[in-house]
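Revision sheet: structure tokens.
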Amino acid sequence: MNKRVGAIDEFAIETLSDGLSLHCALVVSGWIEEDTYFLLLLLNVQSCEEAFEHQWRHLNLSREQYTLRYESKYLMELGKAMSYIMSIAVSVAIQQTLMETALAGLMAAVAWPVAILSCASVLDNPWNVCIARAAEVGEYLAEALLSRSHGKRPISLVGFSLGARVIYHCLLAMSKR
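Predicted:
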């Protein structure tokens, strides 16, 4: 329960590009891919800060771009769970292809539900933890944006998956003030 409710462990807005512009963009990642994190560790990057930047390296939305680094521990757990589910999905697809020759009807009816149920418990806890944390991070982000530390210029918020949920809760909190 402490994972789902409590103070935010990590919240930082970091620079993606050093240019100056009348318009800036803030990007919010939805999870951290395990492969990306380990690749960065091989390149002697000792933290997951660059994992947040790595996902957005080809985005050219504005000359001045920032990324929100938040709750990397929980986003890494979610990334691991999603990688595991993808590997299970691939193995089930291979099994399905091999089973097309014998007992196709019976095995097809049973194999998918069993695989999905076995994966559901792996994803459930990290997903629920990250959902709860995203709502809290959204409120923190609303406070940061309302403080006008970026000035009175327009800012575009871009996010995927749980990053979009962070943005949604940020906008909800901003609309209430």
